Amino acid sequence: MASQRDVKNRISSVKNIQKITRAMEMVAAARLRRAEQRIEALRPYAEAIGRMTRQAARAAGAAEAASVPLLREPSGGGAVGLLLVTGDRGLAGGFNSQVIRAGVRLNGELAAEGHDVAWYAAGRRGVSSVTFRGFELSGSYTGFSDRPVFADARAVGADVIEAYVDGRLDRVELIFNAYVSPLTQVVTRETLLPLSLATGAGEESAQEPDGSTEHDAKKALVEYEPDPEQVLQKLLPDYVETSIYRALVESAAGFFGAQMTAMRSASDNAGDIITDLTLQMNRARQAEITQEIMEVVAGAEGLR
User: Fold this and answer.
1) Are residues 93 and 217 in the same domain?
2) Is the domain of 252 the same as that of 110?
3) What is d(CA 122, CA 262) in angstroms, rounded to the nearest whole number?
4) Chain centroid to CA 108: how far?
5) How far is CA 150 from CA 236, 240, 243, 302, in A?
6) How much is the pTM?
7) Same domain, 104 and 207
8) Do both 78 and 188 map to the same domain?
């Protein structure tokens, strides 16, 4: 049995760790609230720009759309771009690993279909994990996962758009943790490009504000000034960048939620360990007292 002093030292160490995990939990909770506010403000805009882009593409028609680089059909000779959005830091349970596993799984599926894959990763955890697995990164972006700004999404989007326009990519898949609640982050896969396959914001809920669907909305008389082709030239890059920015913001909120949950669990586990160690220390003290009493009794017996 460990001595009373050893157990006391272990209790002190665990208490110090518990203070750290509680502090990290409170910091994550404060940052989570701000991230939730950013998501609430961004989601309607992301959904609206997705609807506008698809409506303008339909209004432009096939002939005009062909002159817009981002609307051109893939040549078939390019790779599939995988953009993973992770955090720069850990201590958040399986938050980062589940995105990486989803990317590796999708890579296997694409390889089985005969597609080449170009890897892009945002967040140090994603960059290091992809590199560790022996994959070559076509783009890595770090240092802003806690509080991303639109300029960060623009930098990522610029590389992806350039590769797609140049024909190096035929498709771009985005994988990130969508924020649901502090306890729940859902690994989400979205197709960014080409637009004909896009499954970004607003795709699932294709209802207009007046209650009509996009299928009905395309019958509405909408006049574009300038023409739809020029509108799409500006709107499409914004759509891609906004979709990436939304993924970054969702991932940031999901990270803080996962970290808060993980640190709370760690604090609770530390409390359980402290309770067990306290019992162990009491047993050790009781054993020492019992031993001393036995020694005194044995000495008294020897004097008779």
Assistant:
1) yes
2) yes
3) 22
4) 21
5) 15, 12, 10, 86
6) 0.81
7) yes
8) yes
Amino acid at 225: E
For the chain, how many residues are written?
304
21-49 confidence digits (pLDDT tens): 999 999 999 999 989 999 889 888 888 88
Phi/psi at 67 (nearest 5 deg)?
-85, -10
> Long-range CB contacts (< 8 A, 24+ apart) of 128-132?
129/86, 129/96, 129/97, 129/100, 130/84, 130/100, 130/103
Read out DSSP for 175-193? EEEEEEETTEEEEEEEEEE
Are 214 and 298 in a shared domain? no
CA–CA dist 213, 274 (Å, integer): 58
DSSP secondary structure string, 116-175?
-EEEEEESHHHHHHHHHTTPPEEEEE-S-SSS--HHHHHHHHHHHHHHHHTTSEEEEEEE
pLDDT digits 0-9 by tens, 72-105: 777 776 788 999 999 988 888 889 999 999 999 9
CATH number of residue 286's parent domain: 1.10.287.80
H-only helix segments in the chain: 4-65, 95-112, 124-132, 150-165, 214-217, 228-303
Residues 128 and 220 in one domain: yes
Domain count along the chain: 2
302 phi and psi angles, rounded to 5 deg: -75, -20
CATH number at residue 102: 3.40.1380.10
Q: Is there a single domain that holds both residue 216 and residue 296?
A: no
